[in-house]
Amino acid sequence: MLFIALGTLNSCDDEVNGNVLVASSVDAAFTLVPVTGVTNTYLATAQPNGVISSRWDTGDGAYPGKMNETIVLPDAGTYTITHTAIGAGGAMGTANTQVVVATSDPVKGNLVKGGSFATATDQANWKKVIYTAPGDWTYSSKGATISGSGGHAGIYQAIDVVKDKEYSIDMVVSGGASADMWFEVYAGKKDPATVSGDYSDGGKVMGLNTWDGCGNSVVSGKLSAIGCTKNERVGMISNVVKFDITGKIYLMIRCGGKIAAGGITIKSVELRGK
Fold first, then answer.
1. pLDDT at 16 over 70
2. Could you give the CA distance from residue 117 to residue 184 in angstroms, rounded to a whole number?
3. What CATH number does residue 146 fall under?
4. SUPFAM superfamilies given for it (predicted)?
5. CB of 56 within 8 A of CB of 83?
């Protein structure tokens, strides 16, 4: 069963501004109801009056969304859903409510181990490849961070999948503005430890690329929402993959180039059945 604990929707409006081109207040109120017949899936419906755009946050960072946003919460837990409404002149209002998911979805459970990187046990699930110094990955409770401008490094882990089943890949990415940088995600059949040179098995699935127009400004949000790298399997932006084998594949995340000072950090890495 699924339970929703609906809290009070608190709207935090900007103060009145004398500039008539800036809204004096923005109502971010929304309703959240389960989608009938779909496990752990909810429809968030925001009021549209005076709202130009919306951002949603389920606890992994805000991302741009629609006024009627479908929210999927595959894992059991308590979530705070936050809506930020943006009005004229950049005025903002926020509202939130809480959802309790009693049971994880058996189909859409996360197959990635240690995707938070928060503990030594989490971190031990990942292996590292240093392609070019000074590129390197470090781990902390905040996530995994790639740093070292001019370098190139990757991290990966093996995951068991089922032939012809569709999976989605995602993660939360944050960092400063980079230049001449690529951040790429692969899901291939070859073990990166056996590959000579840059890993590219299976083709790029998703990522950031400053030449394509993302990663050259501040990065914050789910990669599926802010990335601009095309999925080479389907020729368009998509985080969905499937495989022609039942068995082991390798999720590889690699980054290089003029990485922003402070690095690029990832957390909440996931690969889920659809």
1. no
2. 19
3. 2.60.120.260
4. PKD domain (SSF49299)
5. yes
